[in-house]
Amino acid sequence: MKPTALSWKLPYGITFPGKPSGRYSDGLTATDFLAKQLGAKLPYLWRTHGKKKVKLNRGMNFAFGGSEVFDSPVDRSPNISTQVGFLVNLALARRVYTIDGDLASSYALLSYSGTDYYGFIDQNPNMAAYPAFVEFIVEDIHCNESYSDLVRLHNESLKKAVAKLNKEDKFRTKGDRFVIVDLHKAFMTILEKKGNKRFKSPLKPCCEGDCARMDMKGAKKYTLCNDPKSAFFWDEINPTQEGWRSIYSLLGKSLTESLTKG
Question: What residues make up the domain containing 36?
Fold first, then answer.
């Protein structure tokens, strides 16, 4: 399948690996920094290596940027359930990993960016409708002022869902645990200028305009900053590599300990 997402077009990837790689940033993103923090190598991308014979002891990244929990009539990317299915198929059907050996000592990261909520907000400006929809989203995952309120509701619902999962016998007896990576707190610390002082204007993106898009004459519809390291955001939504580095430096030792403790 030929990549069509903007993350496969310049200027995405200009810092690392020097060309577009499917990451919505100029370089490394959250998954990469989490792997580094755990002392693991960067995983292969399912989209580019899924059908190739590669050594999978370093893991596999099944993510498609901007994925939704539910099927979308607009976005053709596989939803989160389908991506989990890729893992099940690879691990079980193709017998790449052993359940008691490899998978028992592995980490699985499920990251949801809230894409389903955007359309819901546009169609439902009434705040009273939010809680029920948030519960619906979180249960399906199993685990501006409007956006701020939505984030708060989502996080509270997620905490309850994860606490419930950790109490289930099928996970508790095996020693499996679910841990929430609190990106929201780290983001807010930086945006409120309590963290990294590198970013003088943290809300100003490096790639301004319609990032990675061209007009009918082939002219760029965006402008780039001189130094991506000086910007926290790469585009209007996603952090730069330096932004993600700052986030994970804040999460730091406490996150590693929560993930590795027995």
Answer: 11-199
